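Renewal narrative, Specific Aim 1. Our central claim is that a sequence can be written position by position from structural information alone. The example that follows is taken directly from our test logs and has not been curated for this report. It begins with the structure tokens describing the chain, in the order in which they were read.
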């Protein structure tokens, strides 16, 4: 299956109710969605379909909805690359007692970690900072 067909299939799964249409109107891409619906009904393809899919993805991503038609994005290191990213998380203070991990960069303001770590509700101790190489 080609990329446009896969993207249209993802969009089709999202279009089960009025939520997609209402969001598209709010995000300023109602026309693009209407053209995609018409193209899907007519079975037409072309550069305008790809452009409308791109416009939808961009508009939704600007509003925090990533991968509407592109699917989930994930980090993949370059082949042959030596550097590996490091993720810093808050982890269980007991080491392997539980699998609780909280990304530090998603806490606090502007991507900075919290001044104080969250606490373990069971042990009553603060979580500890751990680094993982991806």
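The sequence written for that structure reads:
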């Amino acid at each position: 299956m080609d990329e446009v067909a896969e993207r249209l299939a993802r969009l089709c799964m999202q279009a089960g109710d009025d939520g997609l249409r209402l969001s598209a109107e709010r995000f300023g891409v109602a026309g693009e969605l209407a053209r995609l619906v018409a193209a899907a009904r007519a079975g037409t393809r072309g550069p305008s379909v790809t452009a409308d899919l791109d416009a939808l993805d961009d508009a939704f991503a600007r509003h925090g909805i990533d991968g509407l038609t592109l699917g989930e994005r994930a980090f993949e290191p370059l082949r042959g690359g030596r550097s590996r990213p490091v993720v810093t998380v808050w982890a269980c203070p007991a080491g392997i007692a539980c699998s609780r991990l909280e990304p530090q960069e998603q806490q606090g303001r502007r991507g900075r970690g919290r001044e104080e770590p969250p606490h373990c509700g069971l042990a009553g101790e603060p979580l500890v900072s751990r680094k993982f190489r991806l």
